[in-house]
Amino acid sequence: MKSGLYYKTKKVTLNLIIHLLLLTVATTCILPLLWMISSSLKTQETIFKDMSIIPRVFHFENYYQAWIEGGFGRYFLNSIFYTVAVVIGIVFISSMAAYAFSRLRFPGRNVLFFIFMAAMMIPLQGSFVALYVLLNKLHLRNTALGYILCMINVGLSTSIFLLKTFFDKMPKELEDAARIDGCSKIGIWWHVALPLAKPVLAVVVILNALNVWNEFILALLIFDSRPLMPLQVALMTFQGEFVTRYPLLMAGLTIAALPIIILYLLMQKYIIKGVTQGAVVG
Amino acid sequence: MLKFKSFYSALLFVFILIIFSGCVSRQESGKSVITVWHWMTDREPAFKELSKRYEAKTGVKVSFELYVPSDAYSQKVRAAAQGANLPDIFGILGEKRDFSSFIKAGFILELTPYMDEDNAKWKNYFFAKALAVNEFNEGNSYDIKPGIYGVPIDIMTIQMVYNKALFKQLGLNPNRPPQTFAELLDIGKKIKAANLQGLVSGWGEIWMIDCLANNYAFNIMGKDKVIATIKGEVPYTDPDWIKVLSLFKDMQESGLLASGLVTMVNKTAEQLFANERAVFAFNGSWCVNVYKEMNPKLEYDAFLPPKVTDKYPMAIWGGAGSSFMVSGRSKNKEEAVKFLRWLTEAPQQAYLAEATNNLPANKESINKIPQVLANFARAMDSATHPRVWGVSEFSPVIEALDKGIQSIIIGEKTPEEVAGEVQRIKERELKKRR
Questions:
Q1: A141 at the B interface (CB within 8 A)?
Q2: Which GO terms describe its cellular component (chain B) (predicted)?
Q3: What confidence tier does B18 reach under pLDDT thresholds 50, 70, 90?
Q4: Residue B22: inside a domain, yes or no?
Q5: Percent of chain B having pLDDT more than 70?
Q6: A279 has a pLDDT exceeding 50
Q7: Predicted complex ipTM
Q8: Tell me, what's the pLDDT at B1?
Q9: Does any domain span residue B41?
Q10: Residues 235-264 of A with CB under 8 A from B
């Protein structure tokens, strides 16, 4: 017969191991972030000499310099504008499309859905030239609208997939009840499906916001005018062919990371719900 | 429910507003006469300054547009070529094959007639080897009409640098770098005795080993024999090649090579040298800029790898750093050519070198730049590059040679063993192509 002490020791040891493991993973995740903030407060010289996480002298002026030299003001607003526009577009279109794929019966439904899924497999770089030529012909190259439409297209497949999976699990009885109350199909999508899909929508929002916020290659391809470029392009100006201005780059990265961290913290509750969604819907 | 509905409606309203705002056509100011696309972040402020000077002088506005990183820039240039949107002036990154495909498609203007005007006045601005990268000779394998198709903006050479303060510490003359390989090995012994780190370089990225091995191959056996080896007419087991490989063994045994050199990346090597933790470095001329950023007080100078013999000249790798091309479909061709001619004149080249620490392509501007840069630039007379040899070695052979040298340095293999292995791979590759 094993004593209570045995079980208590076993529990404590197991907890210790689990927590040590989690702590190690958490440290690995947070260390690059700490290094980024620490480097943003050093000079180009001390970044290579002083390896400590806490700098001996704090150079907060790096943030000011990065903001001014990188022209962050304009680019910051551009990035916010593109992120908001693209995310709204994706949420609107993908929620409608996903609901239609899940609930409406029409010929070629599965084929169309698989085509959308197949689009997820094509890397963006593979479509650069075709996209450039197409936008050129539509006179949308070097316009904000052209970039927004492209980015909406980039995020649609994944978002449709996530939302369709959610709508598939939604009980039909909820819709029947709404139909009895006189709701049309659009009405059910609007009044029933969307409010229930809030956790998944939060995941869609954060995934796409992150994607648009960090994107710069497509922007570089589509835009010729610098005033239209997003924030990430400004960060690249600190990275030379042979010399990288690390303190300014790290200060810039810290500034650029802030809005996404704030967005994540604001939507954290929904994201966790969204990730664990599936057990009970409705 | 009502709260959610109004929130969603608000989002929809913002989206529609944004889409409509995007539909407002954006007109360029239309003031720019010449547009230049480039990828050189470190040269952007200097280019902007030069553009202001050019506008003040001629009234022609030049707009420099920076697109980084360089691989994204390359994609943009390719896409723009397909969409017939190339700017007046641009650069092509990549191999000569890519360059030739742009010429064949008519995207690049031939500059030979402009270069040859006034007894080749413009052509004579440049180091001949800087121009060679942008030139296609008679009977070239790319089937391009012989001529010059690009303008070098700067050049680069790969040499050795030494730390003057550490030279003093070793009791050596800080103004006299080693002149012969024997002297270099003697310094290696002193470095070992003083417990210092000797030569650092990016030999973990093996192309830099290849570079130094080729430098010494040219010195020991001459260009013709190196080319004959590449053509398969001389085996790598030839005594001269064994001698080249043995140099690395000698360097290791003398204590000249820093510990961990065979796995070192160039960034680490630059960091070690800039922080005065290594006596020598083998690096490209771009290092002037890198060292300045890492340690502005660093006292150092550049020198050619010390020769083993006087039989043949020492050759180093070098040539054009960055080049600009004029779009063959530009409406501003003549203005673009005029601007490039002005940009490559001595005063502008000296300004670029001073502001960016890159070597000028104009040979007349050497006297107007800092000594360390001038020393790098003067070595252009000794410069060569595999791209201008007309033949190229098989990649597996290069890899076997470079990795073999790494094995020699760590004492895993002898020079004779490596030479034998490389020759076997060479024969295998030759057989495949026959």
A1: yes
A2: ATP-binding cassette (ABC) transporter complex, substrate-binding subunit-containing
A3: low
A4: no
A5: 92
A6: no
A7: 0.76
A8: 47
A9: yes
A10: 236-243, 245
Among A127, A143, A243, the residue to mutate for chain B (most B Cβ within 10 A): A243
CATH number at residue B237: 3.40.190.10
Distance separating alpha carbons of residues A192 and A177, to the nearest angstrom: 10
Contact state of A241 with B70 under an 8 Å Cβ cutoff: yes
Task: Indicate the number of domains in chain B.
Answer: 2
The verdict on B273 touching A (C-beta cutoff 8 Å) is no
- Which residue range(s) make up the domain with B179? 157-317+390-433
- The residues, any chain, with a CB within 8 Å of residue A167's CB and separated by 6 or more, are A98, A99, A101, A102, A103, A193, A197
| Pairwise CA distance, residues A149 & A130, whole Å | 15
Q: Which of B360, B385, B410 is the last residue of a domain?
A: B385
On whether both B61 and B179 belong to a single domain, the answer is no
B81 interfacial to chain A (CB closer than 8 Å): no
CA pair distance B420, B423, nearest whole angstrom: 5
* Cα–Cα distance measured from residue B377 to residue B367, given in angstroms and rounded to the nearest whole number: 10
Mean pLDDT over residues B343-368, rounded? 90
Residue of A nearest to B19 (CA): A145
Position B387 scores a pLDDT of 74
| Same domain (yes/no): B83, B169 | no
| CATH superfamily ID and name for A61-276 | MetI-like (1.10.3720.10)
Give all strands (DSSP E) within A67-162, no chain letters.
Answer: none
8 A C-beta contact, residue B317 and residue B384: yes
Do residues B325 and B304 both lie within one domain?
Answer: no
- Choose the final residue of a domain: B365, B385, B405: B385
Residue B4 has pLDDT above 80, yes or no: no
A267 confidence band (pLDDT: 50, 70, 90): confident
**B294–A44 C-beta distance less than 8 A:** yes
In tens, the pLDDT along B265-321 reads 998 899 899 999 999 999 999 899 889 888 889 999 999 999 999 999 999 998 878
